[in-house]
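Note to self: keep these together.
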Amino acid sequence: MAVLKPDFVPRMEGLDALRGFALMGLFLVHMPELYELYWAHPATDPTQLLWHNIIFTTFAGKSFSLLALCFGVSFFIIMDRAAKRGVDFTVRFLWRLALSQFAVTLALLGLIGIIHSLWYRGDVLEVLALMGVFLVPFYRLKSNALLIALGVFFLLQPIQIFQIISALNGAVWANKAPGFWTAATPEAYLIGKSLMETIRMNWVDGHPFKWSFMYESGRLSQILGLSLIGMVLGRVNFFSQPQRFIRFRLSALAIAAVCAIGLSYGKPMLVALMPTSESMFMPRSLWDTMLSGWFDLSLMTVLMMGFLCLYYGFAHGLLNLLAPAGRMTLTLYVAQSLIFVPVFYSFGLGLHATMLQSTAVLIAIPAFVAQVVFAHLWFRGFLYGPLEWLWRAATYLTIRVPFVRKA
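Structure:
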């Protein structure tokens, strides 16, 4: 059996660095969130609330959105490179995605998302894998304008708009609060339970909770919209030919900043425009959620374009330090939860009740720096991150994929 050759295509280091930045932001959210246990006993001390609000306002919802957009870019790159080799990659890509979520017994890659969700119910790998399936038919569309229009359509949250209209017209179902509003944190996570009980609860309660949250909060629609826009960015060579988009980055940064500021200060007034009553409370609540989501998207764009302006400018040397972490995002993302879930959960140290927000953030910063250093050292000897190699090997159904970097 022939050994597969690695792709000797110049890496888009700007994309790698952006992905590493998104991973950093996601980790900075997970730590003060205590890997979802913060909501069992939110902070009340003003200083700790300030730490929490700064991190969540800056990164919560934005880093996840950046990863979804990067996923769309990566999807296009995979499909495009295969097409240039004269191979229709659609079936093989669907196989890769199916492994990520469903084929638990078929390959190690298929276990990543499932096993990780048993360890930490907030796992996003399954969600991205499922959304990737929906991207496949859109790849066949040749019109970038149509793809962007579809992306914007999904970002506008059509399901929530439909629910608002239905609620205003008196539909009973549309005025029911979503389940995740009142869902309590499972006791197994908080009080002296075993690892096996936590795993059982993640499967029995965690999976339904995660998918209902993703649907009811509009995250699924948002991921699909961002992935479509990411696919267009890949198609127009936004990352492979960055010099062509200098003005675009600056313009997008300015427009997004204006939108973020406008939504931040104007949101209370906009929310008040939606009628509400004791029996018809969901329209205003949904409208509030949608406005918050659009604020998050605006700030995400500010973070993304600001990062890229600095990356392709005077801060290139500093920000490029994140590129190796971006090349092994899958490995580092899983490693973060493997290390820190036991710190907060009852089967481990159980520090969810005593860990301050400031302490969690101050632990997260050097911990992520250590991951970046590890990534730099790792790629001196290897071509791929460990899980990235397993993902690639499962894609081609062979272990004869180069792993160790030759001298």
